[in-house]
């Protein structure tokens, strides 16, 4: 088995180097959906990532209310889905597809921890099958122009998870993907996935079998209850190699590895 974290169903690795400890937010999202038994909703993800306009038929709303640029030249039977963020897209899609809903389950824009980026997980429920089309706009600006349709995506009804990562400044939002889930996923279900919150990093020495924990992004490692050891700070660690460091315990020549 490779020690590199290339398997999306693998427990996320803790990257430990001279700069500090970090956990890839995308790896924790992959870990979570694997633990939940979710299936990648590739069609929905591809539709969202298509560079053309993304439309859904059957809208009765005015094009002027949408979030993406529009000249209003689209036929009245189409609605341009808002992809300024996956959450906006999910809300727009749910709205247009009717008998549907969207809800933010997990949002840690300002949360501390060991993650390289904050995450947001939303729930999208589609009550009816929908067909999304991708299209390029008309060129003459008249109201009755038909869109130049270049793709069609049939989406099954059901429950979907929408996973995003958000830049530290809160300005860059990136879709990580859509997944189909059998039923609505709750905050508690995500919180119960061991390691998903990435709030605690454990340090274990395989030689002296001492172990420590650090919390909420802190570099201070305190001995786990009952472990005869002193606390230490990651910034004082030496011998960084392959995401391990020298064991800080006196007279131990072992290596400390990190897990969430
Ligand atoms: Zn040790």
What is the number of independent domains?
2
Largest sheet, spatial ordering of strands: 15-14-13-12-17-16
The total of beta strands comes to 17
Shape: elongated
Q: Into which percentage range does the β-strand content fall?
A: 25-35%
Largest sheet features: 6 strands, antiparallel
Mean pLDDT: 83
Low-confidence stretches: 1-5, 59-73
Helix and strand composition category: alpha+beta
* Ligands, ions, cofactors: zinc ion
Write the layout of secondary structure elements.
Blueprint: E1 15-17, E2 20-22, H1 25-35, E3 39-40, H2 42-49, E4 53-57, E5 78-80, H3 86-97, E6 101-107, E7 119-126, E8 130-136, E9 148-155, E10 158-166, E11 173-181, H4 187-191, E12 200-205, E13 211-215, E14 220-223, E15 232-233, E16 244-246, E17 255-259
Antiparallel strand pairs: 1-2, 3-11, 4-5, 4-8, 6-7, 7-10, 8-9, 10-11, 12-13, 12-17, 13-14, 14-15, 16-17
Highlighted features:
260 residues; alpha+beta; 2 domains; six-stranded antiparallel sheet; five-stranded antiparallel sheet; 4 helices; 17 strands; 14% helix; elongated; disordered N terminus; binds zinc ion
Description:
By secondary structure, the protein is of the alpha+beta class. It folds into two domains: 1-23 and 198-260, no CATH class; 36-184, no CATH class. It has four helices and 17 strands. It has a six-stranded antiparallel β-sheet, with no helix packed on it. The two termini are 19 Å apart. Bound molecules: zinc ion. Zinc ion is lined by residues 205, 207-208, 210, 247, 249, 252, 254.
Explain briefly what this protein structure is.
With 260 residues, the protein is α+β, with helices and mostly antiparallel strands. Helix content is 14%, strand content 34%.
